[in-house]
Amino acid sequence: MFDRITTTPEIMDGQPTIRGMRFPAKTVVRMVAQGMTDEQIVAEHPDLEPEDIRAALRYAAAVLDSETYLPLTRTA
């Protein structure tokens, strides 16, 4: 399911990365959250592919489905 998201103890201390590169999946998610388009991300980081971005977002969604949530401010 997450063939583009890998973890290797020797790479980034085992953080989830894109295809075994020294590029954390969370960095891709952060760039999307900051409003960068796929085209901007790939232009700035040519080793990434559009499918890497989709994989990082799918991985982040799966983590949110399975982990504890950070405390949020309550709404009325």
TrEMBL record:
Source domain of life: Bacteria
Residues of the signal peptide: none
Name of the protein in its database record: DUF433 domain-containing protein
Organism annotation: Brevibacterium salitolerans
